[in-house]
Amino acid sequence: KQVIAVVPAAGIGSRMGAERPKQYLQLNEQCILGHTLDCLLTHPQISTVIVALNPSDEYFAQLPQASNAKLVTVIGGGERADSVLAALKLADEHSWVLVHDAARPCLSHHDIDKLIASDSMFPQGAILGSPVRDTMKRTEVNGEISDTVCREQLWHALTPQYFPVRELKNNLSAALVEGALITDEASAMQWAGIKPGIVRGRADNIKVTHPDDLQLASLFLDNLNR
Ligand code: C5P
């Protein structure tokens, strides 16, 4: 099976409040996106990595990974799903794709292997997830608690998310045309009536979103044995 990776990296990271898009912030010895790309580019089963960039990106070309022969870039879109779709248009329709957030630099090869190996159990695709740990509450708009939500079958949806390119591309574009709320690839597949699987991944595969996450990611990377 041919496996490629798509990395949406076209966001501006406004919640980080930094002077540059968060994927270009320094984390230990290189920027966040550098770590993410290293993990994907060195995985033996991944043949191509397509990175979606912001049209006004001024940092990517300076990364050492930019000249890697496995790497292709494309201009992303207004939302994450638009960026993923733009990248999928360059992908071989017969391959499978691992869509992975640029802002998750602590990914391990072990989790990629687990996800790829899950295709016998989940032939229509699967995503990495981690079980919810805290007690979950639902509130009214005014903040009053209305409910405790049973966490037994609740998961955090992580990335990579692993699907056949053709199906993902078709479902993503149809769901976007219909105006469905699509915040990850699994949502687009679910929208089309498919039930993707969840594969338990490492909880340290965090998405760097707020400034505090940088310190956590730094520690996690130091302890990561890819
Ligand atoms: O903002 P958030 O952290 O949820 O974004 C997840 C990923 O999607 C990031 O890697 C970001 O760069 C990417 N993204 C994108 N195109 C957009 C918005 C976000 O590629 N228009």
TrEMBL record:
Site (Transition state stabilizer): R15, K22
GO molecular function, one term: 2-C-methyl-D-erythritol 4-phosphate cytidylyltransferase activity
Pfam families given in the database record: IspD (PF01128)
InterPro entries per record: IspD, IspD/TarI, IspD/TarI_cytidylyltransf_bact, ISPD_synthase_CS, Nucleotide-diphossugar_trans
Keywords on record: Isoprene biosynthesis, Nucleotidyltransferase, Transferase
Site (Positions MEP for the nucleophilic attack): R151, K207
Record-listed E.C. numbers: 2.7.7.60
Superkingdom as given in the UniProt entry: Bacteria
Functional pathway: Isoprenoid biosynthesis; isopentenyl diphosphate biosynthesis via DXP pathway; isopentenyl diphosphate from 1-deoxy-D-xylulose 5-phosphate: step 2/6
Chemical reaction(s) catalysed: 2-C-methyl-D-erythritol 4-phosphate + CTP + H(+) = 4-CDP-2-C-methyl-D-erythritol + diphosphate
Residue stretches in coiled coil: none
Record-stated family: Belongs to the IspD/TarI cytidylyltransferase family. IspD subfamily.
Function description: Catalyzes the formation of 4-diphosphocytidyl-2-C-methyl-D-erythritol from CTP and 2-C-methyl-D-erythritol 4-phosphate (MEP).
Name this polypeptide is given: 2-C-methyl-D-erythritol 4-phosphate cytidylyltransferase
